[in-house]
Structure formats: C-alpha cells, structure tokens
Amino acid sequence: MNDKEAIDLLEKQLVALEKAGKIIPGDRQFFYVGEYDLALEGVYVAHRRHPGVLENAEVQALVDDFGMDTAEFDK
User: Contact at 8 Å (CB) between 20 and 72?
Assistant: First the structure.
C-alpha cells in the first residue's frame, strides 16, 4: 500500500474507535501532527483491548506496512 492509502486506513481506524468510544486520548493528536507511528501504536493497543471494534485484517495490514514491532504490546 502507498503512503496515502496507509494514512487513510489509519484515519479510518481512528474514526471507528472514536465512534465506539474506545479511542485512547492523544491518538488523534499524534495523527494530526504527522506522528503516524505513534497513532498506530494507540490503534493497535485499543484493538487489543477492545477486540471486535476494528477489522483484524486492516490493523494487521497497517502493522505490516509500518513495519511495527508489536512484541511489547502483545505481552
């Protein structure tokens, strides 16, 4: 996926978390200032805490695209 597609997909995840009332404070701010890797970390943590809110395949696609090491979050 190209950068625009990844950013759009990340924003989609943030919107879904906001609608479900499960967003972690600050994640949207990270996104707005271009700290996409930090916003993705928040999305990933929220996804782990609240399964079923986000699509597993979409979150995994972002993790793969960003090259995120999830080991510390999977403990």
Answer: no
- Mapping DSSP to helix (H, G, I), strand (E, B) and coil, where does residue 33 land? coil
Q: What six digits make up the tokens of 11?
A: 């924003």
67: left (phi over 0), alpha (psi -120 to 50) or beta: left
Contacts by residues 52-55 (CB-CB < 8 Å, ≥ 24 positions apart): 53/16, 53/17, 53/20, 53/22, 54/13, 54/16, 54/17
For residue range 49-65, what is the model confidence (pLDDT) as tens digits? 999 999 999 999 999 99
> Which of 17, 10, 39 is CA-nearest to residue 27?
39
pLDDT band at 24; cut points 50, 70, 90: confident
